[in-house]
């Protein structure tokens, strides 16, 4: 995906987003905060105005598009993308799982899945950079970093056992 | 006092009514404010024996503030760094625009037997496109999202810079014009000395500007901006230097202070009030009978400068790598003339010869009226223009469009 940005002196800024079908989404952000959204079918056709939003509404619609209120893919976990394939994920330790009660070293999670635990959240308490002797308890939230596939395996193992 | 206040109230009624009419008709407010001024002024309403607005000193002063604020905002939105960043493309399109239209206007003036200064004034009036009308029409028609908006707006930025230099020179020529070569030389030296110092001050005084405006209180903020712009412009004019260019430079200084958006939010309504007074005032001073005297230059200018602007814009669009069909739109999009042509007309009106005092202002009013309407209509019906001009090409085919 490519995004083109250009200045519109006296008006604001223009961003063009290439869509999968070869058309472009054109977003004009006025200095007043108003956003106008256009779609341009192909390079030589004229842009067609789709809709326009004031600043506040644009931000609200923006957070909806971002998925802050609703994650359509995985509803039980929150994830943040670092670069193209590395994720930070929050995973809750399930009650009937093997790892509940084990130390990090005993669980051998990093060797098995490839994802590392960078913090443990237990109620209000946070254990940052936990060592191998830190124990995992049912109900803990583990903050995990790793490649996408590793994070998925990790989540399966820890939440379902 | 009571009479003056009543007259002023009358002026705002005219502005409100013509503004409403413009909104209803989907036209730019600028030409209609001017027409409102002509109708309510001494030459029409006055001759009909109905109450009219006299072209008095108070209104002239407030109109002057309108000019100062218009140019201040131009400077505020102008950025040398941006011009440098997008540099050569804007430069090339802007130079083509300047190189075609200014000399053409000067030639028309000389061809009419006018003096060089008079011809220079005419050149400026026909050269400068209207940022206000062009930008509004780009947004209304949705061209703002298409590639042609970049060369159009880029050319307008270049014109802003060109008009600052132009006003600095021509103001000195008009105001110092009587005393011969030495006097002109001296007033030019004063102008460039003053503006040069001001330029250095705004270029390196960013921190000072930022500190002046670092205040939460809205009222104090607005007053501080005015307390810098108005006295600096006044000092310029007192020295015979263009007050408009001084205001432009102060605007440039404020644009890098980090307060640009707040100034825009809070002062645009102030600017709009005084700019409206300025447009009405231009109308007040226009005797429609003088339009008859200006009909020859007017016809010549409309017939010659419309295609010239389209052609220069077309080549400007080409330097941006746009197709023939989009480049043509760049030309059409630059046709409307407006506020800055009227600013030049106001300068001409303070001149010494009958051509400057009477013919050029009347010409400018007629020219802006025709070109603002013609330009907007051409933009709205650009499909017809494209079909007419690019007959041999099937409309809408992109040749080498690079975006």
TrEMBL record, chain A:
<dbReference type="InterPro" id="IPR026278">
    <property type="entry name" value="KhtT"/>
</dbReference>
<dbReference type="InterPro" id="IPR006037">
    <property type="entry name" value="RCK_C"/>
</dbReference>
<dbReference type="Pfam" id="PF25991">
    <property type="entry name" value="KhtT_N"/>
</dbReference>
<dbReference type="GO" id="GO:0008324">
    <property type="term" value="F:monoatomic cation transmembrane transporter activity"/>
</dbReference>
<dbReference type="InterPro" id="IPR058776">
    <property type="entry name" value="KhtT-like_N"/>
</dbReference>
<dbReference type="GO" id="GO:0006813">
    <property type="term" value="P:potassium ion transport"/>
</dbReference>
<dbReference type="Pfam" id="PF02080">
    <property type="entry name" value="TrkA_C"/>
</dbReference>
<dbReference type="InterPro" id="IPR036721">
    <property type="entry name" value="RCK_C_sf"/>
</dbReference>
<protein>
    <recommendedName>
        <fullName>RCK C-terminal domain-containing protein</fullName>
    </recommendedName>
</protein>
<feature type="domain" description="RCK C-terminal">
    <location>
        <begin position="76"/>
        <end position="160"/>
    </location>
</feature>
<dbReference type="InterPro" id="IPR050144">
    <property type="entry name" value="AAE_transporter"/>
</dbReference>
UniProtKB/TrEMBL annotation, chain B:
<feature type="transmembrane region" description="Helical">
    <location>
        <begin position="30"/>
        <end position="46"/>
    </location>
</feature>
<keyword id="KW-0813">Transport</keyword>
<feature type="transmembrane region" description="Helical">
    <location>
        <begin position="290"/>
        <end position="316"/>
    </location>
</feature>
<feature type="transmembrane region" description="Helical">
    <location>
        <begin position="119"/>
        <end position="139"/>
    </location>
</feature>
<feature type="transmembrane region" description="Helical">
    <location>
        <begin position="58"/>
        <end position="78"/>
    </location>
</feature>
<keyword id="KW-1133">Transmembrane helix</keyword>
<dbReference type="GO" id="GO:0016020">
    <property type="term" value="C:membrane"/>
</dbReference>
<dbReference type="InterPro" id="IPR038770">
    <property type="entry name" value="Na+/solute_symporter_sf"/>
</dbReference>
<feature type="transmembrane region" description="Helical">
    <location>
        <begin position="328"/>
        <end position="348"/>
    </location>
</feature>
<feature type="transmembrane region" description="Helical">
    <location>
        <begin position="90"/>
        <end position="112"/>
    </location>
</feature>
<feature type="transmembrane region" description="Helical">
    <location>
        <begin position="187"/>
        <end position="205"/>
    </location>
</feature>
<dbReference type="InterPro" id="IPR006153">
    <property type="entry name" value="Cation/H_exchanger_TM"/>
</dbReference>
<feature type="domain" description="Cation/H+ exchanger transmembrane">
    <location>
        <begin position="14"/>
        <end position="376"/>
    </location>
</feature>
<keyword id="KW-0812">Transmembrane</keyword>
<dbReference type="GO" id="GO:0015297">
    <property type="term" value="F:antiporter activity"/>
</dbReference>
<feature type="transmembrane region" description="Helical">
    <location>
        <begin position="360"/>
        <end position="379"/>
    </location>
</feature>
<feature type="transmembrane region" description="Helical">
    <location>
        <begin position="266"/>
        <end position="284"/>
    </location>
</feature>
<feature type="transmembrane region" description="Helical">
    <location>
        <begin position="225"/>
        <end position="254"/>
    </location>
</feature>
<dbReference type="GO" id="GO:1902600">
    <property type="term" value="P:proton transmembrane transport"/>
</dbReference>
<dbReference type="Pfam" id="PF00999">
    <property type="entry name" value="Na_H_Exchanger"/>
</dbReference>
<keyword id="KW-0472">Membrane</keyword>
<feature type="transmembrane region" description="Helical">
    <location>
        <begin position="151"/>
        <end position="175"/>
    </location>
</feature>
């Amino acid at each position: 995906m490519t995004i083109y940005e250009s200045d519109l002196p006296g008006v604001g800024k223009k961003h063009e987003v290439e869509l999968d079908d070869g058309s472009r989404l054109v977003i004009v952000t006025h200095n007043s905060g108003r956003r106008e959204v256009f779609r341009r079918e192909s390079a030589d056709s004229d842009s067609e105005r789709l809709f326009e939003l004031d600043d506040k509404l644009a931000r609200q619609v923006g957070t909806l598009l971002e998925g802050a209120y609703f994650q359509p893919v995985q509803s039980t976990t929150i994830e943040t993308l670092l670069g193209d394939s590395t994720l930070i994920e929050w995973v809750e330790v399930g009650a009937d799982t093997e790892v509940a009660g084990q130390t990090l070293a005993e669980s051998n999670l990093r060797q098995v899945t490839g994802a590392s635990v960078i913090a443990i959240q237990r109620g209000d308490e946070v254990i940052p950079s936990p060592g191998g002797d830190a124990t995992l308890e049912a109900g803990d939230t583990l903050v995990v970093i790793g490649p996408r596939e590793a994070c998925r395996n990790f989540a399966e193992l820890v939440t379902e056992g | 006092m009571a009479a003056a206040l009543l007259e002023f109230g009358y002026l705002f009624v005219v502005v409100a009514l013509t503004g409403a009419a413009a909104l209803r008709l989907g036209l730019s407010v600028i030409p209609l404010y001017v027409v409102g001024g002509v109708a309510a002024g001494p030459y029409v309403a006055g001759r009909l024996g109905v109450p009219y607005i006299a072209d008095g000193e108070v209104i002239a002063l407030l109109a002057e503030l309108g000019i100062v604020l218009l140019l201040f905002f131009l400077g505020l939105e102008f950025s040398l760094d941006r011009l440098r960043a997008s540099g050569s493309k804007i430069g090339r399109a802007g130079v083509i625009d300047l190189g075609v239209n200014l000399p053409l206007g000067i030639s028309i003036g000389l061809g009419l037997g006018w003096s060089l200064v008079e011809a220079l004034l005419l050149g400026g009036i026909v050269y400068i496109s209207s940022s206000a009308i062009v930008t509004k029409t780009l947004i209304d028609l949705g061209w703002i999202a298409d590639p042609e908006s970049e060369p159009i707006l880029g050319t307008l930025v270049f014109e802003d810079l060109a008009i600052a230099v132009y006003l600095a020179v021509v103001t000195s020529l008009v105001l110092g014009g009587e005393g011969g070569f030495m006097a002109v030389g001296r007033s030019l030296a004063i102008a460039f000395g003053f503006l040069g110092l001001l330029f250095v001050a705004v270029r390196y005084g960013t921190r000072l500007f930022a500190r002046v405006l670092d205040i939460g209180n809205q009222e104090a903020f607005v007053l501080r901006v005015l307390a810098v712009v108005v006295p600096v412009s006044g000092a310029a004019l007192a020295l015979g230097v263009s007050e408009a260019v001084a205001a432009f430079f102060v605007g440039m200084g404020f644009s890098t202070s980090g307060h640009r958006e707040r100034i825009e939010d809070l002062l645009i309504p102030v600017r709009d009030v005084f700019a409206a007074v300025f447009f009405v005032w231009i109308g007040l001073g226009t005797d429609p009978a003088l339009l008859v005297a200006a009909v020859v230059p007017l016809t010549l200018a409309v017939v010659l400068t419309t295609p010239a602007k389209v052609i220069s814009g077309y080549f400007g669009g080409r330097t941006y790598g746009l197709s023939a069909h989009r480049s043509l739109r760049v030309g059409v999009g630059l046709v409307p003339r407006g506020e800055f042509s009227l600013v030049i007309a106001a300068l001409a009106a303070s001149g010494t010869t009958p051509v400057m005092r009477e013919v050029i202002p009347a010409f400018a009013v007629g020219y802006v009226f025709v070109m603002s309407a013609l330009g907007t209509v051409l933009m709205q019906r650009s499909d017809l223009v494209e079909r007419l001009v690019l007959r041999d090409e099937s409309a809408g085919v992109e040749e080498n469009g690079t975006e």
